[in-house]
Amino acid sequence: MHYLNTKEAAAILNCGTKNVTLMCAAGKFPGSKKVMGKKTDEWRIPAQEVIDYQANKEVEAEVLPPESHELVTVKSLADFFMDERRRNDAEHDETRRILEEEVKRRNEEIMELRGILAKQGEEVAVVWGKVAEIEKKKRPWWRWW
After folding, report:
1. How far apart are the C-alpha atoms of 141 and 145, rounded to whole Å?
2. Are 50 and 4 in contact (CB under 8 A)?
3. In this structure, are 5 and 51 located in the same domain?
């Protein structure tokens, strides 16, 4: 069985190597294998599967009646892209809202921790003050006898 790399398969399918890689990962070519390359993993695709896929792709393209091409208008494409943009904007707004809530929550945690540290700092200062008082009262070692 003859295998093709992604570059050769892309030339046959008239697409980019990234598309071929994605198609392999999606299982479009069941006999494809991932092998270790020089820098990254590479796909090896059976030549017959690429040829069969190309043939099926051409048959599917021929099945569409010519009048269906008239259904796609500039307005329908513009509407499609506007809908996609609205959806993406909504997702972006939702992500921004979630991130802002997370930042707010973390800032509250930081303020709480600063309060705890300030309180502990005061307690430490009191302890060190007491230690200093005891040190003043203690006699030097050379006066012990």
Report:
1. 9
2. yes
3. yes
